[in-house]
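Input C-alpha cells:
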C-alpha cells in the first residue's frame, strides 16, 4: 500500500500535564497541581518511557524538541536540565536544534527564564491569550496584563532571540477594538513569533458545556481581517492559518507537524507518529492520560493508552488537513516522502479543487483565500465515496 523510499524528519514532543488551574476552554490533557508536582518521579517516568521507544527510531536524528502542557514552566530548571540531559544521552540530536518550552505568565519568577536558557531551551511559547484584565478573567486565566508584559520582557532579558506569544481573538464579549489593541500590545513587545487564533468551544471543556456569549461571525471576521493587515504591516508573515513570524523565525517543530513529519511523544497523554520503512507502515500510539497511572506504568507496555495504523485514505486526509494550513502548501516530492503514496492517487481531487477555486492554479499545491476560509469543503473532495 505504502512505498516509503526515505523517512520524514523526526521531532520529539514531551508532555508535562500539570497546571495551576484548568482553563475553561482548554481541551489538552492538563491536571491541576493541587498536591504539588512529583518532578523527580515524572522525569524518571519520561526517560523510562523514552527508553521503550528507542528501538523504533534507532539511527534517526531528532530535529526539534517541544515541551508542552499543562504548564511546563511550573517545573524547576533543575528538573528540565535532568530531562534534557537524559534525552541527549539517548537520542542523536541535530546541532543547534530548536528546543521550545511552554510558559504561563502567571508562573514566571524573576530569573527563571535565565535558568531555563542555561539548560539548552532556546525558544519559549508564552500563553498570554489577552492583555485585557476583564477578558482574562472571563476566560479563566490566572495572570494579569502586567504579568503578561513582564513575561515578554523577561524573555528578552534572558537572551531568548526567539519566543512566541500565544494570543486569542473572538473572546467572550470582545470587540474588534479590544482584539486589535491586544494585537498591538503583543507586537510592541517584539516577539519573533505570534500565534493568533480564534477561540473555539472544544468538546469536553467547561465552555462547551456552559457556552459563553461570543462575538458573531461578522465581528470575528472583521477582527481577523484587520488583524492580519496590521501583522503584515509590522513584518509578521502569515505562514500558517494561525501562525505569524518575522523572517526566519517560523516554529520548526510545528512545521514538522504540518508537513506530516514523524514525532516521538513521551509523557501522560502524549501522541506520536512513527514511519517504519522496513514494514511500510505508519504507527500511531498514545500514552495513558492520568499522570499517576502513566508514572506507574512508564517502564513497560502498560503505559500505552492506544495504538492505530492509518490506511491510505486516512493518510491522505491527515496530510492534507495539515499541509494545506501552510501558506506555501506542498509539492510532489514532499507528498511522496511524507505519505509513501504515488501522487497520482490524489491528483484528480486536487484538480477538482482547483476548478472550484479552492486551490491556486499553479504549483505548489496551496489554498486560495477562499479555500482557506472553506477548508472543510476543500477536504471533502478527498473523502472516499461510501
Amino acid at each position: 500500500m505504502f512505498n516509503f523510499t526515505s523517512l520524514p524528519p523526526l521531532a520529539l514532543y514531551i508532555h508535562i500535564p500539570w497546571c495551576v488551574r484548568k482553563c475553561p476552554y482548554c481541551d489538552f490533557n492538563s491536571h491541576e497541581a493541587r498536591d504539588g508536582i512529583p518532578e523527580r518521579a515524572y522525569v524518571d517516568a519520561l526517560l523510562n518511557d523514552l527508553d521503550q521507544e528507542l528501538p523504533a527510531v534507532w539511527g534517526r536524528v531528532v530535529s526539534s524538541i517541544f515541551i508542552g502542557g499543562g504548564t511546563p514552566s511550573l517545573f524547576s530548571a533543575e528538573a528540565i536540565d535532568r530531562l534534557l540531559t537524559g534525552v541527549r544521552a539517548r537520542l542523536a540530536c541535530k546541532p543547534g536544534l530548536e528546543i521550545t518550552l511552554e510558559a504561563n505568565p502567571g508562573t514566571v519568577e524573576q530569573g527563571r527564564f535565565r535558568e531555563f536558557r542555561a539548560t539548552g531551551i532556546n525558544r519559549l511559547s508564552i500563553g498570554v491569550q489577552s492583555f485585557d484584565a476583564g477578558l482574562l478573567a472571563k476566560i479563566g486565566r490566572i495572570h494579569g496584563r502586567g504579568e503578561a508584559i513582564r513575561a515578554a520582557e523577561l524573555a528578552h532579558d534572558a537572551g531568548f532571540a526567539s519566543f512566541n506569544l500565544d494570543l486569542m481573538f473572538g473572546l467572550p464579549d470582545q470587540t474588534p477594538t479590544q482584539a486589535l489593541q491586544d494585537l498591538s500590545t503583543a507586537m510592541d513587545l517584539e516577539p519573533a513569533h505570534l500565534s493568533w487564533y480564534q477561540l473555539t468551544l472544544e468538546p469536553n471543556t467547561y465552555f462547551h458545556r456552559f457556552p459563553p456569549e461570543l462575538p458573531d461571525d461578522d465581528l470575528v471576521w472583521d477582527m481577523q481581517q484587520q488583524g492580519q493587515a496590521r501583522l503584515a504591516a509590522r513584518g509578521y508573515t502569515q505562514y500558517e492559518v494561525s501562525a505569524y513570524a518575522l523572517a526566519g523565525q517560523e516554529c520548526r517543530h510545528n512545521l514538522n507537524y504540518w508537513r506530516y513529519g514523524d514525532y516521538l511523544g513521551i509523557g501522560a497523554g502524549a501522541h506520536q507518529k512513527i514511519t517504519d520503512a522496513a514494514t511500510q507502515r505508519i504507527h500511531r500510539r498514545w500514552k495513558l492520560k492520568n499522570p499517576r497511572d502513566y508514572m506507574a506504568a512508564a517502564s513497560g507496555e502498560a503505559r500505552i493508552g492506544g495504538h492505530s495504523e492509518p490506511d491510505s485514505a486516512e493518510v491522505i486526509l491527515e496530510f492534507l488537513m495539515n499541509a494545506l494550513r501552510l501558506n506555501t502548501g506542498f509539492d510532489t516530492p514532499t507528498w511522496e516522502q511524507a505519505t509513501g503514496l504515488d501522487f497520482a492517487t490524489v491528483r484528480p481531487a486536487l484538480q477538482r479543487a482547483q476548478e472550484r477555486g479552492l486551490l491556486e492554479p499553479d504549483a505548489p499545491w496551496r489554498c486560495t483565500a477562499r479555500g482557506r476560509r472553506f477548508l472543510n469543503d476543500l477536504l471533502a473532495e478527498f473523502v472516499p465515496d461510501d
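The two ends are 20 Å apart (CA to CA). The mean pLDDT is 93.
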